[in-house]
Design brief:
Elements: H1 2-17, E1 23-32, H2 44-56, E2 59-67, E3 70-75, H3 90-93, E4 100-104, E5 109-116, E6 119-126, E7 133-141, E8 144-157, E9 159-161, E10 173-184, E11 202-208, E12 211-220, E13 235-237, H4 239-262, E14 269-271
Parallel strand pairs: 6-13
Antiparallel strand pairs: 1-2, 1-12, 2-3, 3-4, 4-5, 5-6, 7-8, 8-10, 9-14, 10-11, 11-12
Length: 273
Amino acid sequence: MKIFTFLLLFIVTITTIFAQEFQGKAYYLSKTKMDPKTWENIPPERKKRFMDRMNSNMEKNFELDFNSTASLFYEEESLDNSERNGRFNFMSFMNPFQGVLHKEFATKTFTNRLELFGKIFLIKDSLLKSKWVLSGDSKKIGNYTAYKATMSREVIQEVFQFGRQSAGESKPKMKTVNITAWFTPQIPVSTGPAKHGGLPGLILEVNSNNTTVLCTKVVINPKEKMKIKVPNKGTVVNSEEYNKIRAHKIAEMREMYGRNRGQGGGGGRFRSR
């Protein structure tokens, strides 16, 4: 509690130093390691090739534009780097983050613009409450002193089974994910990569499940002013509605794959852990 109080006082002091036009840009490198058990039902001759392809596609570069009220997180190549030509991209589907994410600090809401099977969605919802525990541990990340915070969260364990769904598999399974974040009060914005945030300072590093996101560079008050706009142009849904649509599309693909396999194609079971 004393640590948290100290950090709050520190961030208030630091905030008064920054001008009202305070802006910044942070660059992140995201790496996701695929668990070999994910592909346990793939034939051995295909398993290594498939894992190599997945691992090579699980390293991404992102940018985070932020000011004192909002932030915009997106993949470095473009402001919409999701699926192409309306076709299902399994590599993109397994990516922990997709699309463009806008976060509003005061209202604790987000807008996530992404593409699913050729259709653009705007997911508008409230950010989940973050119950961070501060340990007091610190380390240097670049020129910044970062402090450690941890939390656990229950999330859906997605199971990708191509073919007919077995009885009793309709109810989603849950799993506990342990999250470790390193944030710096020297940059007084309550945000970070993807939907991570809620700490008294910018998150420079986060480890969640089998994904590590590390900040490689920060630019404060760049010469060219940024416009942090809320994404638009898409079908507006909340998180629950989008998850139902997504699950329905997965079921359609599973059924289609099952029919193709019955006609002589190969197949397997894919599990996202």
